[in-house]
Amino acid sequence: MSPSSSAARRSPRSGTFAAVDLGASSGRVVTGHAERGTLRLREVHRFPNRPVRTGGTLHWDVLALYQGVLDGLRAAGRVDSVGLDSWAVDYGLLDADGALLGNPVHYRDARTEGMADRVARSVPPAELYAHTGLQYLPFNTLYQLVAARGSAQLAAARQVLLIPDLLSYWLTGVRGTELTNASTTQLLDPRTRSFSTAVAEAAGVDLSLFAPLREPGDPAGELLPGVREETGLEGPVPVTAVGSHDTASAVAAVPATGDRFAYIATGTWSLAGLELASPVLSEESRTANFTNELGVDGTVRYLRNIMGLWLLQECLRTWEAEGRPQELSALLRAAASCAPLRSVLDAADPRFLPPGGMPERIADACRASGQPVPEGPAQTARCVLDSLALAHRLAVEDAQRLADREVETVHVVGGGVHNELLCQLTADACGLPVVAGPAEAAAVGNLVVQARAHGVIPGDLGLVRALLCDSLPLRTYQPGDGHGSPEEWARAAREIREHR
């Protein structure tokens, strides 16, 4: 794609870009200035993402998110392009006038209960996986749309826009469906990189509701005059499609050298796996619950979704509500002093998906499996982190076996980079060095896709990653730091496998 008119006014070797990165608990706007093979980052605005329950349904407050985006763009100042990424699967419905039909429903809402069984009656799970390569998750977009069938909103809908595409539409007036996020709907074939009419017809989903597909790096319109007035930005300001699923952007920002690496994108979720050239659609892959999502430059993100730091976040919320707030750094120091692997859980267990009462649910799970019940916040936190490290190990082991790909290094990116104990435990559990960073990986990947599309940095993903290695602070954790022996980790991993 040729540089935008605003970018052309500057040297093609430099440019400033704005990444809008929306996570499940907060959003941020980060600017990146690329020049002479370096990338300098600046977070200009951060805002909360607080779901709201009304009428018994859990919703995203999408208008508050949009206002946060506008505030962030105002704080960013002059930029050559804007890109948006967010969590996956959720969407907004537009009517014939292009107006939003109600707040988007949160993926943790209970409306999708039983929907997988309903879909399986028309598309058996093995057939569904053979067409889409997506792991079973109860909230995939397919199940959400089936749950909405018969509702007044869906009947009135003329368009479905995934969350980052909805916000991009409000900024530009242009509608599209970005490919990496579309690949999480369980309606897209990762081999053809297009929607599966066979799955949609069998499940009763109208694919004409989706806007045309677009790839990372494609133009996605320009900021509308009203948006420029609201943000103080001088036009024209192009919006560039990026890996709009935040994990796609995060994996693009993995500062790897070579291809013998695994990645773990950490945050509310842990997404652990490999970057491949083609999907793995075997029955063994399906039963191991691995997903094939599309990435930047035609890659496949072959990974497993793990409950992630959600477990600890929910514990912190519960303790605060009970009048026992915990300061995180002090809690992690105390957890580091606890006995390793005293009690561990299967961090992929769906019982931990809903919000509320997490410490007691963890205690119940330990009790039911005959393990010691954690005594107090420090032991609970250690149980969570040991369990996440084990889940990371199992995902990395399984991915290597199923994809026939050996790895030498594990890259941890995302918010979990700040959790030094989790990084060290992951190195110990995997028996491999862990390279941690960048923390704002989704924003970094968002920025480099924009900079590349506008001709400011080299186009090859390997060269982009080399630039990131030189530009970003990274830390390496070596296995064997005293948090359990290799034999103890192997035994704990076997026990988790046996109880799945």
UniProtKB/TrEMBL annotation:
**Alphabetized Pfam families for the sequence:** FGGY_C, FGGY_N
Q: Which residues form the Carbohydrate kinase FGGY N-terminal domain?
A: 20-251
Quote the cellular component terms of the Gene Ontology held in the record.
cytosol
Name the domain of life.
Bacteria
Bias (Basic and acidic residues) occurs at 484-500
Q: Which residues form a coiled coil?
A: none
Stored InterPro entries: ATPase_NBD (IPR043129), FGGY_C (IPR018485), FGGY_N (IPR018484), Rhamnulokinase (IPR013449)
Gene Ontology BP terms: glycerol metabolic process; rhamnose catabolic process
Q: What region holds the Carbohydrate kinase FGGY C-terminal domain?
A: 262-453
Region (Disordered) spans which residues? 479-500
Q: Which residues cross the membrane?
A: none
The molecular function GO annotations come to: ATP binding; glycerol kinase activity; rhamnulokinase activity
Keywords, ordered alphabetically:
ATP-binding, Disulfide bond, Kinase, Nucleotide-binding, Rhamnose metabolism, Transferase
Task: Give the similarity note.
Answer: Belongs to the FGGY kinase family.
Q: What is this protein called?
A: Carbohydrate kinase
Its source organism is Streptomyces nanshensis
